[in-house]
């Protein structure tokens, strides 16, 4: 009976059972000789009855102890005691990925690719030493608090796995991640680990396993015959392609090595992380990348001017030819507010008051509005000035003409007042004196003689 407080091999005290599976139970224990915490995996007694299992497992334990990789759990010791076989390993502080998935459901594509890259690196280290894991699943992926991943339980599943699929529930987790060739009875290879890691990535991205069934045999056969349900639509195409290739039915169509899969997964994780964490510039979602439909910001185009002088949607450029600031790059910070039609900024940017003065570097020459640039007045301003000048000239001409007319009238009245009033008698006398011929008027002849 295994219980807390039992000591194995005379030095490993069992403190707490922390996990269990088809191959045995894992305990947190204490190495009483070195005084350190260890993980002790106790194999099921039934496995020891398999011919050659104990010796084969001991040989693999020695090989695993030679792997020096931060992503591979360290193997300290192997032993047997009281009809029990146990493996003493490094105790990893952290949670199994299976526990994280049961708590959060799904992981982001960037986080998934980062974990897949670390797991693939660990698998490559094992494959280089001739070890095939054969049981890659979230329960064997431990994630430390700092985010680094450790792959555990190398080589333990070498025992006849397909034969155990008939034991209901004993290797259900393993059946969910088994490769088609393993389910068909073929020998597991490095490509089998790549397939299982692709299934782990599928579960992280979708929140569920690709195949379900009532029994482990049914699940295993679905890996052989059926295609998995499509990943959610929000998964980037590059990530989808990585997972699809890893889960190919044909081992030759998968990633050729775990190292190749680690490389593409790390590249995808880096690209996705860069897109998420780029700081916003002038309202853009990412530095040097426009938001949907928006212009590029602070990103020079090949063969073209810098985008500091490139208009936002509908906004004026930095100035026409001859403008004092033409051809000069504006300082990259703070962002230069630019009014656009309707008082709205570029998509993703805050609205800018139309009268707000733009930022100017202290060493920059004085800025002038394009409409007030010397030697290039706007059309409306010039028309108004011409009309004003014409109106002033016309007003002066009217005043001048009125003055001249008034003067002439005044001079004429003065000259006429100095002569004798004009009457019929005076007109007659003037005519007589001038010797002009006179035609008598019968109507007035009598009065004139008197």
Structural account:
- The chain is α+β, with helices and mostly antiparallel strands and 450 residues long.
- Among the domains are: 7-90, Phosphorylase Kinase, domain 1 (2-Layer Sandwich); 95-276, Transferase(Phosphotransferase) domain 1 (Transferase(Phosphotransferase), domain 1, Orthogonal Bundle).
- The chain is built from 14 helices and nine strands.
- The protein has helices at residues 45-48, 53-65, 97-104, 109-128, 161-164, 172-176, 180-183, 190-206, 216-225, 237-246, 258-277, 379-417, 424-433, 445-449, and strands spanning 7-8, 12-20, 24-31, 36-43, 75-81, 84-90, 95-96, 141-143, 149-151.
- The strands form two sheets. Strands 1-2-3-4-6-5 form a six-stranded antiparallel β-sheet. A three-stranded antiparallel β-sheet has the order 7-8-9.
- The longest helix has 39 residues, at 379-417.
- 29% of the residues are buried.
- The model is unreliable at 157-173, 280-356, 369-378, 418-440 and 442-450 (pLDDT under 50).
- Residues 12-281 form the Protein kinase domain.
- It catalyses: L-seryl-[protein] + ATP = O-phospho-L-seryl-[protein] + ADP + H(+); L-threonyl-[protein] + ATP = O-phospho-L-threonyl-[protein] + ADP + H(+).
